[in-house]
Amino acid sequence: MSPLLTKKSASLFTIAALLSGCVSAEQVAMYSAVDAGFANVKAESAAATRGKQTVWIQSREQASEVASRVHALVHRKTISADTAVQVALLNNRGLQ
Predict the structure, then answer these.
(1) Which of 47, 52, 57 is closest to 81 using CA atoms?
(2) Is the pTM of this model over 0.70?
(3) How far apart are CA 19 and CA 69, in angstroms?
(4) Mind spelling out the 3-state secondary structure of the chain?
(5) Which residue of 12, 49, 53, 94 lies most exposed, with the fewest beta carbons within 10 A?
(6) Cα dist. 6→13, 18, 89 in Å?
(7) What is the pLDDT along the chain (96 residues), one digit of tens a residue?
């Protein structure tokens, strides 16, 4: 192994060790959760849309449940703007 490669490896290890000290155990748990990024999206969208719900669809069963929920919200009904917003959030693939 060349001395230059050893110095680079040591530098990278030192930087990684220093940066890891900047992260709390709570942050590690939050960012390593299954829905790590979506939890923030869910909170932000609920605040911005007066409590409307968003769903991160991860399986066919969840997709079926959301489709049934959307169907129940709109089938044979005149919908309000609030209902339209809720349906749009549930059907928004950009949130997925």
Answers:
(1) 52
(2) no
(3) 44
(4) CCHHHHHHHHHHHHHHHHHHCCCCHHHHHHHCCCCHHHHHHHHHHHHHCCCCCCCCCCCHHHHHHHHHHHHHHHCCCCCCHHHHHHHHHHHCHHHC
(5) 94
(6) 10, 18, 51
(7) 566 557 777 777 677 666 666 667 676 666 666 777 777 778 888 788 888 888 888 899 999 999 999 999 999 999 999 999 999 999 988 776
